[in-house]
């Protein structure tokens, strides 16, 4: 009897491992974007979405006609201060004319975003008076990377196309048509980003209801 019980226990353990592996594979497949999503030439037509820090679903299609900056952010990075000050400055100046910013907290680089979403939002509000969208905490590289970052990396023009995110605060500038026009590294040059945002807001035509710059 003890041998039979031991054999049954071993069989149960093996089945549990198989089930766990199956669940992990399913989770990975849910994270990975579909071929149709990656094939879309416009982020706004990709069918992709993300949750904000409060669990509300945001469809990328809602951003059609907007100019969007997508950023992977961290609170304890050497680039935190310059980027949040720069992003806040640009958002305050151009949001009413059609600029949106999606900030995705990510703890993949030096574990520099360890806090919970409520703690991150409190920090950003108290220190930088952030008003743009703080999104769900995500991974931006690897098997569990968020589909939006898979899409952005694969649609970055030029030599950076397909390249993994190197560090915190990489930024993608997406125009009104949903195309990536620029990928910025971790440093923040206010004049460069502001000029590019202005050019996209003015140069790609005004969405209905936009104010004149």
UniProtKB/TrEMBL annotation:
Residues 1-28 form the signal peptide. The active site is at 77. This is Glutathione peroxidase. SUPFAM superfamilies: Thioredoxin-like. InterPro entries: Glutathione_peroxidase, GPX_CS, Thioredoxin-like_sf. Belongs to the glutathione peroxidase family. One of its GO terms (biological process) is response to oxidative stress. PANTHER family: GLUTATHIONE PEROXIDASE, GLUTATHIONE PEROXIDASE 7, CHLOROPLASTIC-RELATED.
């Amino acid at each position: 009897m003890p041998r039979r019980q031991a054999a049954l226990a071993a069989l149960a353990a093996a089945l549990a491992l198989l089930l766990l592996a199956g669940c992990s594979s399913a989770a990975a497949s849910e994270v990975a974007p579909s071929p149709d999503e990656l094939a879309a030439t416009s982020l706004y037509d990709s069918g992709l979405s993300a949750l904000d820090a409060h669990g509300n679903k945001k469809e990328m299609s809602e951003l059609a006609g907007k100019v969007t900056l997508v950023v992977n952010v961290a609170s304890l990075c050497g680039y935190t201060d310059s980027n949040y000050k720069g992003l806040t400055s640009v958002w305050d100046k151009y949001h009413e004319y059609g600029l949106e910013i999606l900030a995705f907290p990510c703890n993949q680089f030096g574990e520099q975003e360890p806090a919970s979403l409520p703690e991150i939002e409190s920090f950003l509000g108290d220190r930088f008076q952030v008003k743009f969208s703080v999104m769900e905490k995500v991974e931006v590289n690897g098997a569990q990377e968020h589909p939006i970052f898979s899409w952005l990396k694969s649609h970055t023009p030029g030599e950076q196309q397909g390249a993994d995110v190197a560090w915190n605060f990489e930024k993608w500038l997406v125009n009104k048509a949903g195309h990536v026009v620029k990928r910025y590294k971790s440093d923040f040059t206010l004049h460069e980003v502001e000029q590019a945002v202005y050019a996209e807001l003015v140069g790609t035509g005004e969405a209905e209801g936009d104010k004149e710059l």
